[in-house]
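Reading a protein record of the kind used here takes only a little practice. To see the layout at work, look at the sequence and tokens printed below.
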Amino acid sequence: MMATKKPIPKKTTAGKSKTVSKKSNRSWGEKIKWFFIKLMLWFFGLSIASVVIFKYIPVPFTPLMLIRAIENKMAGKEVYFDHDWEPIEKISKNLQKAVIASEDGTFLYHNGFDFKALQKAYKSNERGRRIRGGSTISQQTAKNVFLWQGKSYFRKGLEAYFTVLIEIIWGKERIMEVYLNSIEMGDGVYGAYAATEHWYRRDASSLTPMQAAGIAAILPNPRKFKATGSSSYINRRKERIVREMRAVGKLNYDGK
């Protein structure tokens, strides 16, 4: 009789499938990890490059300008936009002192953050008083030029990051120059050149202390308040700012 051949049992592939699954999981994990690494590298590279570029060239527009234009368009309002760059040498020293007196008394001395002002604002808000901020001119500039409006922790974190960058790369005088050329100073009015023309029909280099204080006084809400024909509240702010301008003294952006 011929011996019958026993069938050879097939080797199981369970072990192989588990190995492939583990490799696949590791592969996806590696891809995700490298995706985020590349994303962060691109972010740091582009953010630093943009800060370096704007150290030397005028900032043509800001996110807020675009947002305001969209808001007015959606509301059926006229899209009014007035913005011209003015070198800091042609911007009145009175206006420079006025915004320091009004917005950031320690601007010439801090490194981008005024922690005492932040603590004071936090305590004031905690007691249920009128919400107030503790942002410096450097922080406001970082927000205006590179970011959007809002109060999320994510945006505040980015604001702190860009504040450090502009303090290191730009320096105080350039920060003031960009600030005075980008900040909202009326409804559709951005920067010192447009603001002085809009409110006083004169150039940015010839503002009196009271006129400069008038522009600085409306910065908390420039679409609501008026620098001329002002309310009693704004007039009191003007007088206080003029007094505090005297304490600013000589503008020494080099810190020497």
